[in-house]
Amino acid sequence: MKRRAKLYLGLFLAWHVLFSCSKSVSVPEERESYRVDFVLSGFTASVSSLDNGLKLVANSGNNIISGEQPLYFWSFNNGTLRPDLALDEDGVQWTVTPNNVDFVAGKAYAEYNAGRAASFRGVTQIEIAIPLKDVKSLNQLAFNVSGSDTGPKALDILYSIDNGLTFVALLSDYDMSSIKGTAWGDITADLTKLQRTEEIQKIIFRLVLKRGNNGQFNEKTGTLRIDNMRLSGSYDGKIVTVNPVLRHLYYHIFNSQDRKLVTEGRIELERNSLEMNLPLTLASGSYDISFVLSQAVKTLTLPRTIKTADDYYLYNTFDNSDNEVFGERIMSLEVGEDLKVPLVLQRYYSQVKFEFTDKADLSEVGKIEITQEHELPYYVPFSETRFPDLSDGSAIIFYPEFGKTEPVLQFNQFLGYLPVVRDIGYALKVYNKENKIIREFSVSSTLKHNMKLTFKGMLLEGFSSNANFAIQLNEEWGKDVEQKF
Fold this sequence. Notes:
The chain is mainly beta. It has 3 domains: 117 residues, Immunoglobulin-like (Sandwich), CATH 2.60.40; 174 residues, Galactose-binding domain-like (Jelly Rolls); 125 residues, Sandwich (Immunoglobulin-like), CATH 2.60.40. It is built from 1 helix and 31 strands. Strands 3, 6, 7, 9, 12 and 14 form a 6-stranded antiparallel β-sheet that branches. The longest helix is centred in the N-terminal third of the chain and has 23 residues.
């Protein structure tokens, strides 16, 4: 009996020890989601103009026309008071009293994203001096306006055409009290009654900000926001598009199994950043991912609705030719723990250059228009889907000054990730100073992404519909190879 009792006691103690040990064992916690840090690099810090001393003006061909047109335009999306469109950018001068200017979320206008707006805190007066040399007539000054609840709720607009000696009222006691919260109002001041405009060298607009009927007004902290300021009129000369650069990173993440879109986003990068850390939270699984960095005044063309990877494509319109597009895709990224994923973005474009070798004087060339003759180079990262409804009739228009600059034209051709060459071709129309066509011809070659292509030949000498240009290919973005075709 004693032996049996000892046996039971031993079994009980052994069971107790095992149970106690099992309670002290750490069981791994099953997590539903994980942090994935994507560290992106390999792209340029800023976009430099490719005009090589030329004025690349009105890429779409719509900004330089005779008759009524925008003479100056400010989107403020570049985070400065510099105009996007100007007759004389260097001659524009802002005077803000006191000088408290910041840039905040703005309002979309025409082809410009909402981007940023100019925000004036505790400001009582704003003056903008604008050159008007050779302007035939003025139409209106217009802009969008908003502000804080403690900001000014009345506005006077005056103008001076005698360099600030006298000012004339243009708009008095404009009531902004109905513009509240995030709402925007539209202000338009008529300038059609201004006489002898062609003799005016400069106009100064003065905006006087007042309390109005705002009982909450705070003269030190109240803010007024202005966006999409434009001055329109009649002018037959050249209007320079300044091209404020927007740096947008797009990401699209798809489930590798069912190919459905999991998440997407667009982030604005700082102007001079060379690297970006993007932390995202993803559930355990396998993912196909696309990152694309667009750096231009216009945004990329993307589908309006993306449900699966088969719906997804990228395109950069031809007239957005300064855009330096970088990107990378990841296939089947397995997420089952916290990850740090370094990515070096690749160029999704190639550089195309025309070097004209004419010995004759080219100073009479007034305009050169270039259009694409090849199949539209949209990029589909995750499928073989075709998008036949996509079209692009835009053109790049150069207004060269070959008498003063080297006879060279240059632009970026978007291709996406294209590791094998494809056919490309361009049609060129050459106009004289009287806007009459003096030559039309075509060129063609092959191209893949991250290359430099140079067409070298005579612009006007030896007219033919198919120009005999030498072709120079640089496949390593640094070494040149020349060949004939």
